[in-house]
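Forum: Protein Structure Q&A
Topic: Joint prediction for protein chains with partners

I've read a bunch of threads here and the consensus seems to be that you should model interacting components together rather than docking separate models afterwards. I'd like to see that in practice. Below is the full input, 656 residues plus whatever partners are listed. Could one of the regulars post the assembled result?
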Amino acid sequence: MKDSLIFRRLVISGILGWIALFGAIPVLLLTGVSFLQRHPSDLIEAVFSMESYARLSDPAIGSMLFKSIMMATMATLLCLLIGYPFAYIVARANKCHARTMLLFVMIPFWTNTLIRTYALVAVLKADGFLNTALIFLGIIDAPLKIMYTQTAVFIGLIYTLLPFMVLPLYAAIEKLDHRLLEASRDLGASRWTTFKKITIPLTMPGIVSGCMLVFLPALGMFYIPDILGGARTMFLGNFVRDQFLIARDLPMGAASSIAMTSLMGIMLLIYYRNLRRSGRTVRL
Amino acid sequence: MGHNVIDIAGISKSFDGEVALECFTLSIADGEFLTLLGPSGCGKTTILRIIGGFEEHDSGEIRIDGQSATNVPPESRAVNTVFQSYALFPHMDVYDNIAFGLHVAGKSTSEICEAVQEALKLVRLEKVKHKMPRELSGGQQQRVAIARAIVNKPRVLLLDEPLSALDYRLRKQMQKELKELQRTLGITFILVTHDQEEAFTMSDRVVVMDHGRIVQVGSPRTIYEEPSNLYVASFVGEINVLDGVIKSRGECNYVAEVEGVTVVVKSKRDFKEGDPIHLLLRPEDFRVEVMQDLEESPTLAKKFAKALLKGTVDRTYYKGATYDVDITLADGKRILVTEFFDEDSDSLYFNPGDRVAVGWFEGWEVVLPHEG
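Posted by a regular:
Agreed with the consensus. Here's the joint model:
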């Protein structure tokens, strides 16, 4: 008993230390930097300033933010739309089939995302697999122009992030007690009503975590717009990266990434507030 | 009781080649309390799920209120279920759980409110109406499940081992409440259980099942006192099985040799001379006297002339109002006897090693053809 207690404390303090060192401290540093001023040679100057945050409302940056959020929202919704039925089928399939299907979801993780994104170029480019196949089948005459458009970025985001949607959804749906669905049908609810009133509310924790896991990276992933969208479209991820590495404006980069995190935090807060108001608590 | 609310004709069902129901035929009268009794895997839950619409049968027909229910989804059947696990919606409070069926049916808010209040009152849960299911005790959850089903005023209420998760005392109480509820509402109840005591306490009619077939249908009393075979006899309560052979036929009885002793037995069944039989006796059907007392008292001996089997007491078990006695008969067969305490004499208690004579109340024996 004593051994296990010591072991437990060691493990917990180890994890806490890890989170503090690589999670909390960097975020605090970033928050700190975001309130400082830019310095031409030393990068930052220890003078309190809200200038970086003020610049976020600049129309050019504002429209870039809006476009990024729209893109991330669309990607998240589409991932949810594709991911939910898939996760549902996997969760309801027999154990053996479920394992195979989950394996297919995992396989892409065996390759580096950057390499997979380049592979996507080979599929989407003018003389790539997709266009060649479509022309061969006679569906189109001239190659579709997908590469270096927002569509390419969109496809890239969904392709990369779909597993992050499927896995939490699968976990939530798998836990769903099938007897509750039977009870709902028994009480007169159709399949669709049962889905709306029982399945969705009870798998909401999975939906929320899936959306979080997709939305944030969709905002922040800079290499997908870089590779698939060319340098033409600027998204929040590229913007933050450029502030740090090209413009060398650390406070601006920090401020925009803190703003992004805060946005997400506020959205979650609203979600939990609504839950509590309706007298229902949810275990995430 | 009127017409039949459910007619099941020759229903068969198998899962992956495993037979769950075989040519199951049963009619259930409007307003009756029917219990399907049997061990796990006998098909009793399957038949309940077929009535509820959760399982499709392979062949045969089921009619609810005269209408064929084949291919009718659960939501379109005038039947509600109380699930074994209660299956309360964890994201809704007690009120919303009970209101669910009415809400889905598109009833007005005031109508729903009134009906839910009434249901809450019926199961005495007014005080917890805004609690979440996980904040309730097992017994309270059970009541919510019942209220949630009956609030829809179904034609038939299906109860799938509804009391199995409750402790003994609560189970006893709920049995009475369920029976009372059924009387008040006049709804047909179909209960599934493996507990014969539960079946007997509540039911008008009991259906004993084994391996997907009906073994016997009858009132609790018929099932207990006139079991149709050894399976029913040994499933419902303790029973002693003695072996014997029919020797000759009397006018309205038989002379048989049971455990090496010649006795007179009564039976409505037809036996021929030389037929091997089982003689079934409940522990409480026996009369036991100490041999020594019989030898000393001629009046007692005369009164006890029917005490025919001889044996030795092995052990006694104190049970409060009664006590059980293990007896080994002269030919080595062991039997269990239940004796009531005699308030007049405190000496009437057997001790291990006592040599005793065992008889039974005339006509209480059940004679069945030998099954082995």
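Chain B has ten helices and 20 strands.
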